[in-house]
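[SOLVED] Need 3D model of a two-part complex

Original post:
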Amino acid sequence: MVSNPRRTVLTGFGVLSPIGSTPEAFWDALVAGACGVRTISLFDASVLPCHIAGEVPGFSAKAMIDKANRRSLNAMARTVELGVIGSQLAMQSAGIAKGTIPPDRIGVEFASLMGATELNDMAAASKAAAPDGDTVSYAAWGAAGLSEITPLWMLKYLPNMPACHTTIFYDIQGPSNTQIPGDTSGLVALFEAARILRRGAADVMVVGGSEARLNPITLSRHNLFVQLSKRNDDPTHAVRPFDAARDGTVLGEGSAVFALEELDHARNRNATILGELAGWAAGVDRGKKGPGLARVIRNALASAGIQPSDVDHVNAHGTGTTAGDAFEARGIAEVFGRDVPVFAPLSRFGNLGAASGLMELACSVLALKNGLLPGTLNHEAPAPDCPVTVHAGAPRPTTKPFAVKVTYTDLGQCAAAVVKRWDS
Amino acid sequence: MRRRVVITGMGVITPLGHSPAELFASVVAGRTAVAPIAHFDARTFPTTFASQVSGFDLAKYLPDAAKFRNCGVNTKYALAAAKQALADAGLLEIKGDRSRMGVYLGSGEGQENFEALTTSIAKATPAGERTANYHAAAALLFVRLNGPQEAEAEMYAPSGYLADTFGLDGPFASCQTACAASSQAIGEAGEMIRTGEADVMLAGGSHSMITPTGITGFNRLTALSQRNDSPATASRPFDLTRDGFVIGEGAGLVVLEELEHAKARGATIIAELTGYGSTADAFRMTDPHPEGKGAIRCMANALADAGLNAADIGYINAHGTSTQANDAAETAAIKAVFGAHAYKVPVSSSKSMLGHLIAAAGVAELVISVMAIQKGVIPPTINLETPDPACDLDYVPHQAREVRFRHALSNSFGFGGQNIALVASAFKG
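Solution:
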């Protein structure tokens, strides 16, 4: 890491989540132990083995979007809507109005994955190409189906659309990028944004993650290859991080967007500082064995210049899957043993995919800021194969200034962020 | 002093060759591989042709190729290009700690099961109606989608498999910024070396959108050429009669390495990555800014990053998509940045021959630019027959040209207004 870098602080936060869609409501729900996992209401998913998830209740982009941008909603899938409304909330939270930062000094880094097509966008075309519903004719699709597709169809679903709309809405002309490495996307976006700020290519970066996953395609797909909980009858107890009775995760949707800003720039405009991104690392643990994740965590601590004993808590991905939690616990334990408590917020809102990293990180940023660490929901019987100490039950005061956020993909791509409480 | 980033290995799978040498020989000869779509029956689509990879077999590169049978071609092309690049760099067999070698891949959506999607939706849509029963569709999709294939379609898979297969345990990222993705991956991977987070980064891109949904999406946006009666002349960047881009597919990866690291292990240095610029247009989803506002700043930023003046650039590998909007805006932007030198510097579009590899376009074009520096030969823009008054630069029409030069600039501009420029330079110690 370069010496004497420009420092990067969080100065705005927008959230749309299953447990609250303002920072205050989100925090109150965390402290109260609320759970946003419910039977899916966006469509009747009861036919799928797992049909519970973390849904953002009552989300309406149309109701929330700035009037000036309302027309753009025509070309947005729900993932994109969640992303751009998240950006809007983050910009408001940061106190940055369009045009108040020189356009070339502000950029965007988003984490978002390919959105699934809205079924009705393909219904007439599919009917034309596969009238019997069993075999599709490419010739019929080309001749009669394709013209039934709305002209801007592709743009509704591309991963880079939340970032692109955000640049257009706020006249953001600095770097714009979109990260897609699964559940690590949000942290990878955050790291790149920090790198951009440190090298002086921008002063403010909008850093967000958004994903809508509760549609027939995404939900069917994940029911085929992800270990999802069978506790449809008991959604609020379904995801059990590091618990002996864990039986899988659930999907969720949402959007978490931060403003990440160079410290002096933030000070000069009297911005409210929520916390500091003090260090980070990414790397691969081939075969998800544990030592690779431990190396990534150690690299992140080193980049922040701190020791394990400086850490208040580790914020784990804690998906509640059998193999995932065991892997993650091994990696965390190799660095921290049982000394540092592990907090896993995912059981409260599900796995938000591209939005997971920043949503989960936000819990620690708020915990450090408020001096209170909420408990991990549904961790009741510590699992023998997860050698970590999980903080469950009632909130406890935070005692140290740093938290470490960990996440990973199923191919062992691991990311760790170090955030620091801001003492002004 | 800033850590310097050099290129020590390159690999490609493209419609015009399965190695950098084959690719470069093809573009210097002005060849094209644009032909009727073979991947599926596209005869009734508005566009019936593409620039496709042919004769590809992953087993030629990996003994355990069968392990990747459920992966999409984006993963398979990337693995093959990575094997070439790492072999070229002499990094396949490095023992010991590999935690300072990472991956940055620009890629796109994974494979899509068109048949399962369309038949499930159709069956769930009552006759004469235009809306599907979502409950019924979910039941059908759950049965008709193939679980192992869907698992491999996750967007982290291509970058994840590169790390897993070649033991690249260091930092990773994977971006999707449409047509700018692989250039952005290379630029940001270079920054990860500059900051000291890594010593080696395998960077580039992989993509195929030659699928029913890919062609449908671009056709509905009217972005593709529809010159179905003459596919080989359809990609005509800067020509007055251009009518859209020609979609291609493929992968390219380069090994970026910190200079002292490369020297210490006696690596052959192919070129230096000297400049990187990244900006957003903040203009429109579907069109570039007509005066190239964002493109101007990204080229200027890349030059400043390289510490070069416009007059130092000996060749510009244009984004040059063959769309009306891009080619005019890019020309205007080059003039704004290069002033009088704009009329002297050769500018060519590899897409006239190769088609548009989307997320893999930028890396293929950087490889071509680097080889142009090495060989002292600038590949042409083919199919440039009818001059466009708005496009009046030296586009190296028809024939390759022998020119000795040291610095090349390569542009990549993505849908939605992401602009990337890279500067590659002959290495001078």
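Edit: Residues 8-118+153-268 of chain A form a domain with the Peroxisomal Thiolase; Chain A, domain 1 fold (CATH 3.40.47.10).
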